[in-house]
Amino acid sequence: MNLNDYFDPTSVAPLTNGLDRKDAVAGKLQTGFDGNKKLPKNSLVIFGVNESRNSNNPGAASAADNIRKYLYSLSGSVIKHPLIELGNLKQTASPANTYIALTDLARYFVEQSATCIVLGGTQELTWPLYQGIVEKSRPVNVTIIDQTIDLDHCSGDFSSNCFVEKFIQQPADQLYNLCLLGFQGYLTSSVSINTLQKAGAELIRLGAVRSAMEEVEPTIRDSTIVSIDMGCVRQGDSPGATNPSPNGFYAEELCQLARYAGKSHRMKAIGFFDYNTQNDLVGQTAHLAAQAAWYFIEGFNSSQRNLNISNPQYLKKFYVKSPLPNVEMVFLNNTLDETWWMEYPESENSTINPKVIACSYNDYLAASKGEIPERWIRHSKK
Asked: What phi and psi values does residue 90 have, to the nearest 5 degrees?
């Protein structure tokens, strides 16, 4: 694949009131990348997708460059791995052609062991990203962070408001876990919730996330794709959304979630979608998206990218007697980054089960008290 066939270079410059270029992200970026060359190992690639034709958010078509000017001016001191700027995906004749191109690119980046940061466009782009990734890396775990669940009144339509249905139709050997995170109950129909519960999706409302942020960290740490609708943040912190809401995540909470995603060893793609430039009069949402992307980059560069969870050198193993017959729960504590994991036994009712599943310290404490952690129960139904 020649990446030059897919992208137009961007000429965006960092803000002049930011850090000196040599100290900023702009000074660490690799630009003008030769599209015929292989990507360096453990690369992060940034590209924009100015696609909004299947949405009611035309402002998303200019989102990528708006975000870049803020991102480029932030500190580059955290960057250790190659950070490659590819530009913006070339304009296509139709949204369907954009989806095909994005699927091709996602597949290629997995083959190259690269992780991508997608700026701009609308949130249905999550689906073609998944289609490319799942061809080369199975099973996939997808986390969608949004104020609503994009499932209502679709009738077979495919758009930024109607794409989640595609995921719930996927077999478990391809899509192992689908998490809808941060949705607001008063904006969500009971029909959508019931449909997703029957499909085995993980549903975590906004209040549940905000009351125990550390408990969603394992879900994001196990994610292959994280898709963020900028409308998940409250209007006071992020006015540049399609339908801004007075409630939602605070700005710093979105940045924390993005950092969790960056530290995931399984992460293949994160997308910052549905930023509406037309509602962002002073650039506040663009600045927030840039800072969240920076936290993803910081998390990516601070994690042990080549860590083997099965390496006993870095693990403490805890055996816990279970109330389940003939089942001994095994928990793993990674002493390098103090993350927790649990070994899940193979099930006769499942075509595929990861041997090691991310969990929290509280899951271990619950098991130690003779309780069955909710995370264990959820995976037992896979």
From this structure: -60, 145
Distance CA 195, CA 203 (A): 11
The pair phi, psi for residue 376, each rounded to 5°, is -65, -45
CA-only gyration radius of the chain, Å: 20
Asked whether the beta carbons of 214 and 259 are under 8 A apart, the reply is no
Spatial separation of the C-alpha atoms in residues 158 and 224, rounded to whole Å: 22
Domain 3-302 class?
Answer: alpha beta
The CA-based dihedral angle spanning residues 18, 20, 25, 28, taken in that order and rounded to the nearest 10 degrees: 170
Strand-pair category, 269-273 with 44-48: unpaired
Q: What is the pLDDT along the chain (382 residues), one digit of tens a residue?
A: 889 899 999 989 888 877 898 999 999 999 877 777 889 988 999 999 998 998 888 888 899 999 999 999 999 999 999 999 999 999 999 999 999 999 999 999 999 999 999 999 999 999 999 999 999 998 999 999 999 998 876 766 788 888 999 999 999 899 999 999 999 999 999 999 999 999 999 999 999 999 999 999 999 999 999 999 999 999 999 999 988 999 999 999 999 999 999 999 999 999 999 999 999 999 999 999 999 999 999 999 988 655 556 566 778 999 998 888 878 899 999 888 889 999 887 654 444 444 788 999 999 999 999 999 999 988 888 7
Query: 10-39 burial string, b = 16+ CB within 10 Å, else e?
Result: bebebbeebbeeeebbbebbeeebeeeeeb
User: Is the separation of the CB atoms in 183 and 148 below 8 Å?
Assistant: yes
In angstroms, the CA 317 to CA 336 distance is 14
What lies within 8 Å, CB to CB, of 334 at 6+ separation is 307, 309, 314, 315, 340, 341
Return the half-sphere exposure (C-beta side, CA atoms, 13 A cut-off) of residue 245. Answer: 19
pTM, two decimals, is 0.94
302 burial via Cβ count (<10 Å: 0-12, 13-18, 19+): middle
Task: With CA atoms as reference, report the closest residue to 68 among 108, 9, 114.
Answer: 9
Structural domain boundaries of the chain?
3-302, 312-380
